[in-house]
Amino acid sequence: MGTFTLLGTRRFAGFFVTQFLGAMNDNIFKNVLMIMIAYKFSSEETSGLLINLAAGLFILPFFLLSPMAGQIADKFEKAWIIRIVKASEIGFMVLGTVGFMIDSLPVLLATLLLMGIHSTFFGPIKYSILPQHLQEEELVSGNALVSMGTFIAILLGTIIGGTLAEHRTALVTGSVVVTVAVLGFLASRTIPMAPAAAPTLKIDWNPFTQMAEMTRLLRSQKGVTSAVMGISWFWYVGSTVLAQLPNYTRHALHGNEQVVILLLTNFAIAISIGAGICAKISRGKIETGLVLIGAIGMSLFTADLFFMHSAPELAPNEALSSPLVLATGPAASSFIRAVVDLFLTGVSSAFFIVPLYALMQHRSDPTLRSRIVAINNVYNSVFMVSSALLAMATFKAGYTTVDLLLLTALLNLGFAAALGWRNREYPQRLKALLTRREHLDGTV
Question: Which range has the top average pLDDT, 99-103, 246-250, 305-309, 412-416?
Fold first, then answer.
């Protein structure tokens, strides 16, 4: 079955639309809030601290509540849980609407925290339900479509959120996020049943004892630990790059809100295209060699954002420039270089993440899969909180956005080297890809 054929099947389509709308709504809300912060405060340090505080608040629930979410996803029927989660999103977006209307940053940050809770409970189901509805040979295609859909949703959320932020219309913004939440709930009602994997499981409500237990379970799954660490590292790098784009646009490119939208859109399109290329190259297999190719590309192109920012034509102007002015003025070559760098970073990111998600799902014990995804989300949150804390420390120490991007690129190269050293399968598959050899024995 071709990759896009899955979209015509009832066992995949309802879930795909539900997660698509959820990701889009997250990004509409987050982008309105992030852009509002970036352009509300003139100080790069102040806006940088608040943006990374907001990013940290969104992912904090993943750390505290993922163990509970994973147990619930294994114990109960998954489609039913999804509908409860999507219904809660409607209430959270109503609160966000109030925050926009009274222009209250605390209320908006509280809403962002609640959306993090929403995503925490959806996360284990999002990746554990796929193996229940898809055949083994469909997993890479299913994950590629989910990745493509997620980042197309980010694209639409970026465009819609950026437009709403630019016009600062609170009632319209609230109406949009509430409407998308309602549509997501309606789509969730079409998802086929996904029976409980461990219906007799006794839920442990203590998150810390469950983290220890799930970490033990994770280590018992061959090859899964490295996949989880790789996924978590991807979110460290990705959250760093995406969170800094509003500041990078204003203080390195001297662009306005429309440039932020353009760059985020460009990045989302790139990951979608990269996911499609990844599925094509993989041919139904889980191709771990692509992970190292993706890691190298992520570092090279992110680092180049540092090296091009000091070009003389990017001198500060009193008025921030639009995309058209940047693309046709004296800064055109540097602006286009930044666009290309972000595009290739996005393509490389897809090469890195799609095989790792498929590997985690394929090699996990079905009765433990939701809990494995949940502990993955815990590690994701730890890495993303670390990203936010390092970013805040970087700004506090007097460094700039581009300094942080260079540091991230260097750390990523170090992680890629460690991943390849611990998993000989990855460099072996990379060599096979580069020499055009057929799939090695044992590659799944």
Answer: 412-416
Cα(49)–Cα(51) distance, rounded to whole angstroms? 6
For every residue of 250-289, DSSP letters joined together read IIII-B-HHHHHHHHHHHHHHHHHHHHHHHHHHTTS--TH
DSSP 4: G
State residue 440's pLDDT score: 45
Instruction: Give residue 221's Cα distance to chain centre.
Output: 24
Instruction: Residue 73: name the closest of 13, 121, 11 by CA.
Output: 121
Burial class (CB in 10 A: 0-12, 13-18, 19+), 26: buried
Cβ atoms of 174 and 99 within 8 Å: the answer is: no
Distance CA 393, CA 58 (A): 19
Cα–Cα distance measured from residue 221 to residue 364, given in angstroms and rounded to the nearest whole number: 6
- Residues 6 or more apart in contact with residue 75 via CB below 8 angstroms: 196, 198, 199, 201, 203
